[in-house]
């Protein structure tokens, strides 16, 4: 079973599957918009001066982006 056929099954055979797909896609996009706004706020208020905290945040950002890549591009 491939990822595409799984998505096709959900969209066609599950009640409101198309709605689940669109909510998931838009929710993921909104999540990343919130992340970027949060980073922008940190830059605006000078939070990058706290090196350890800022670096942990950058590591979390990279892990989030890697997880999204693994789940969206690779299947």
UniProtKB/TrEMBL annotation:
Keywords: Electron transport, Heme, Iron, Membrane, Metal-binding, Mitochondrion, Mitochondrion inner membrane, Respiratory chain, Transmembrane, Transmembrane helix, Transport, Ubiquinone. It is a multi-pass membrane protein. It is found in: Mitochondrion inner membrane. Residues 1-75 form the Cytochrome b/b6 N-terminal region profile domain. Its main location: mitochondrion. The keyword Transferase does not apply. It comes from the Eukaryota. One of its GO terms (molecular function) is quinol-cytochrome-c reductase activity. One of its GO terms (cellular component) is mitochondrial inner membrane. Signal peptide: none annotated. It holds the Pfam family Cytochrome_B. One of its GO terms (biological process) is mitochondrial electron transport, ubiquinol to cytochrome c. Gene3D superfamilies: Cytochrome Bc1 Complex, Chain C. The chain crosses the membrane at residues 22-44, 56-74. SUPFAM superfamilies: Transmembrane di-heme cytochromes. The cytochrome bc1 complex contains 11 subunits: 3 respiratory subunits (MT-CYB, CYC1 and UQCRFS1), 2 core proteins (UQCRC1 and UQCRC2) and 6 low-molecular weight proteins (UQCRH/QCR6, UQCRB/QCR7, UQCRQ/QCR8, UQCR10/QCR9, UQCR11/QCR10 and a cleavage product of UQCRFS1). This cytochrome bc1 complex then forms a dimer. Component of the ubiquinol-cytochrome c reductase complex (complex III or cytochrome b-c1 complex) that is part of the mitochondrial respiratory chain. The b-c1 complex mediates electron transfer from ubiquinol to cytochrome c. Contributes to the generation of a proton gradient across the mitochondrial membrane that is then used for ATP synthesis. This is Cytochrome b. It comes from Chaetodipus baileyi (Bailey's pocket mouse). The lineage of its organism: Eukaryota, Metazoa, Chordata, Craniata, Vertebrata.
């Amino acid at each position: 079973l491939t990822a595409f056929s799984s998505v096709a099954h959900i969209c066609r055979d599950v009640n409101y599957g198309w709605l689940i797909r669109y909510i998931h896609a838009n929710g993921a996009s909104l999540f990343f918009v919130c992340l970027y706004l949060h980073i922008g706020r940190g830059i605006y208020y000078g939070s990058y001066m706290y090196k350890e905290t800022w670096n942990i945040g950058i590591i979390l950002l990279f892990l989030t982006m890697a997880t999204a890549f693994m789940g969206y591009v690779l299947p």
